[in-house]
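Task 17 of the worksheet. Students: predict the tertiary structure of the chain below and write it out as structure tokens. Keep your answer in the requested format; marks are given for formatting as well as content.
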Amino acid sequence: MWTTTERRTTISLSPPSTPRLRMRPPRPAGSARSSLDGAWWPRSADPAAELPGLILALQALGRPDDRRPITHIMLRVADWDSRPRRLRVDGPADTRVVRLSWFDTLPAGLLTAIYADGRRVDLLTVPASTGHAAASAAMELAAHTTNHLRTPELLAALTTPARQDPAGTETASQSAWESEGGRLREDLVAR
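Model answer:
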């Protein structure tokens, strides 16, 4: 039996923001599904404020005659500040309620959106507190067509300390890499 709290629909008090989203190019028909479809960098850990903009952006992907609504979002409990079960999304064409499911067992940083027709989109969710350069690099890698890394590996790459030479200073190549967008461990990129 549902409690009153579980039946309550959360409504965002602010208009949907434009998401910082990077998606892979569409897969050719019949090709294998990759581990991630792209990456998203929310501005906060508040699902009611952040998810409406993402949901509307994901629904707008694809051909105009083949756009389906998102009906369900699966999230990891530890990645967010609150855990609403239902979220009202006010879009330009309609208003709908999206079901949110919370799991302790989902990999860190994974968000799965499920469309009404059963299609799904798996996104790396970059923590809101991540710096711009590191977040951009992680999003670019997650959306790259040759990426086979999963969300925990990508998040670990965000926090890996810089390599140092024997004198304890960063190497020149490491400094150049960081200035171009992040600290991605070589052993993860080589896979």
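Marker's comment: Helices lie at 4-7, 47-59, 132-143, 151-159, 172-179, 186-189. The two ends are 47 Å apart (CA to CA).
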